[in-house]
Specification:
The complex is a heterodimer of chains A (273) and B (260).
Chain A: H1 6-14, H2 21-45, H3 57-70, H4 72-104, H5 106-120, H6 124-135, H7 139-163, H8 167-175, H9 180-217, H10 223-232, H11 236-264
Helix pairs in contact in A: 3-11, 4-5, 4-7, 4-9, 4-10, 6-7, 6-9, 7-9, 9-10, 9-11, 10-11
Chain B: E1 5-18, E2 21-34, E3 38-42, H1 49-57, E4 64-69, E5 72-73, E6 81-84, H2 96-101, H3 109-121, H4 137-150, E7 155-159, H5 167-184, E8 187-192, H6 195-201, E9 204-209, E10 214-220, H7 232-258
Parallel strand pairs in B: 3-8, 3-9, 6-7, 7-8
Antiparallel strand pairs in B: 1-2, 1-4, 4-5, 9-10
Helix pairs in contact in B: 3-4, 6-7
The chains are: A mainly alpha (273), B alpha/beta (260).
């Protein structure tokens, strides 16, 4: 009877009165960075800090505007985005694939996981020169370096998420007579989705990190190259523009994944703070 | 199989292997259940009632003896043996109607119609699109019941399904279940530790005693439905179940004391 249960559905609507506070929350989050920038600008203007090492925010903004106007920034950024995207797609895709495989079968765990764990422990910077030797200074070495980084977070998180699926629900799937395929598609994957999406977020971050390493080491284009080139000519503002670009684009990518996660995992009943 | 016997359990023995050796959970249990019967199995904890149910469900196939459904030995879990767990165990990422359909597609018009019928049967109209986190315990358990019924099981096995519910919700759920049974005539085995519940629901009450799990007695219950818990005949039967318990418990205590 519905009278046993009306309360819970009604409480869904009662929570939605926090809308006007959104602006206040943003202001709260922005207060510290804005203050920092103001102090920085003031100190730079008075000559208290070296404008060579710490160009003032206004100088950086100026450099950024001219880089945007000349199309230089966008040209480098586009190349970087393609590299990061391809590397993330390749590495993350394979990581997800092998994570699912190893998660679903104990036999493949025993054969594959030890090797993967070994490769995981080799640092980026250690293999970067080798990658350049093997695959040349072209795009391949960079994309593969990014892929190597992006592989592991997705691999490990997909693997662990599958192993963490509630055994009680497996029992239900047996009682309901799920086929092997349905058990994976309708039980394992949805149950592992929170972990997989966390893996996507971490992989994306690592791909971005790998991009910087790849472009700083050996490159003739990309935001990383723009930075290392500027450093050689002591154009510190351009270095800061590069850092800012990496931060903003990285944050944007992360926000997109977070938004997708929130939509896909709306059924979760977790602590919301 | 003739004479309406649906489930035939003969000389069932079950031993759990632990690192201290074997623990006998069920000893030489014999039980025949006819089609359409409502059986309640009652006994104190450790009497093997949940173990018995898991064996019938095919979730535990490491047993000795013979357990046959319509003459076929039970070797695996499947949709012919519906199972309701103590907790609802719904898929948290699916809405009520999709939980009921589970691996079946609601786009199939036949499934769609059956799901709608079952939602009506378990009285959940208006909650088709709700998610498990929005449901009360009783509602979630009704979804689980509808999910099992959609597969038209030959037998429905219920493992203390209302144990976690408050008294009002529980008595409401008992009504719902009797309704379903009277409409569908699905054979039921209902495990409980609540004597009133056992007497209220069943045609036959199977009383188990613990260590090892053995049938202590089987009582027929011919009281007409709907049953009145306050009636003299209900109380009489309740006392009969209780005395079956007490007899065994007194004997148990006697044995325990003899050990000192």
């Amino acid at each position: 009877m519905s009278d046993l249960s009306g309360g819970k559905a009604a409480s869904r609507n009662a929570v939605r009165n926090g809308e006007p506070r959104k602006a206040a929350i943003i202001a709260l989050g922005a207060a510290l960075p804005v203050l920092l920038l103001a102090v920085w600008q003031a100190l730079g203007d008075r000559g208290a800090i070296s404008t060579m090492l710490f160009p003032t925010p206004l100088t950086i903004a100026d450099a950024m505007l001219s880089l945007i106007r000349s199309g230089e920034l966008w040209g480098h950024l586009r190349i970087s985005l393609v590299r990061a995207g391809l590397g993330f797609g390749l590495g993350g895709g394979l990581g997800l694939l092998f994570g699912l495989l190893v998660g679903l079968s104990r036999k493949s765990e025993k054969t594959l996981d030890p090797s993967f764990q070994m490769i995981r422990m080799v640092p980026h910077l250690a293999v970067a020169p080798l990658f350049v030797l093997w695959f040349g200074i072209g795009e391949e070495s960079k994309i593969l370096l990014i892929a190597k980084g992006a592989f592991f977070p997705l691999y490990i998180n997909a693997f662990l998420a599958i192993r963490g699926v509630d055994n009680k629900l497996f029992e239900v799937s047996r009682v309901l007579g799920f086929s092997r395929f349905k058990r994976v598609a309708r039980l394992v994957l949805p149950a592992a989705l929170p972990g997989i999406l966390l893996g996507v977020r971490l992989s994306l971050g690592v791909a971005w990190l790998g991009l910087v390493v790849a472009e700083l080491i050996a490159s003739t284009s990309g935001v990383g190259y723009m930075m290392s080139d500027a450093r050689q000519f002591a154009q510190t503002p351009v270095v800061f523009v590069g850092i800012l670009t990496f931060a903003v684009v990285g944050l944007a990518a992360d926000s997109i994944v977070r938004l997708v996660s929130r939509k896909a995992l709306h059924w979760q009943d977790g602590f919301k703070g | 199989m003739g004479n309406g016997v649906l489930l035939d359990i003969r000389n069932l023995n079950k031993t759990f292997q632990t690192n201290k050796g074997g623990v006998e959970a069920i000893r030489s249990l014999n039980l025949r259940i006819r089609e359409g019967e409502f059986i309640t199995v009652i006994g104190p904890s450790g009497c093997g009632k949940s173990t018995l149910l898991k064996i019938v469900a095919g979730l535990d196939v490491a047993y000795e003896g013979s357990v046959e459904l319509e003459g076929n030995r039970i070797v695996a879990a499947g949709i012919d043996k519906g199972f309701i767990f103590q907790e609802p165990r719904l898929f948290p990422w699916l809405s009520v109607e999709k939980n009921i359909a589970a691996d079946l597609s609601l786009r199939d018009p036949a499934i769609r119609r059956r799901v709608d019928e079952l939602i009506e049967l378990v009285r959940l109209q208006g909650f088709e699109k709700a998610y498990p986190r929005e449901l009360s315990g009783g509602m979630a358990q009704r979804v689980a019941i509808a999910r099992a019924l959609l597969r038209s099981p030959k037998i429905l096995l219920l493992d203390e399904p209302f144990g976690a519910l408050d008294a009002f919700t529980r008595s409401h759920m008992q009504e719902v279940l009797l309704d379903i049974w009277q409409q569908n005539r699905t054979t039921m085995i209902f495990v409980t530790h609540d004597i009133d519940e056992a007497v209220y629901l069943a045609n036959r009450i199977v009383i188990l005693k613990p260590r090892p799990g053995e049938i202590s007695g089987i009582l027929a219950n011919d009281l007409p439905y709907p049953r009145k818990q306050a009636s003299a005949s209900f109380q009489e039967l309740r006392l009969a179940v209780l005395s079956e318990f007490h007899g065994k418990i007194e004997r148990q205590e006697y044995v325990d004391r003899a050990g000192i």
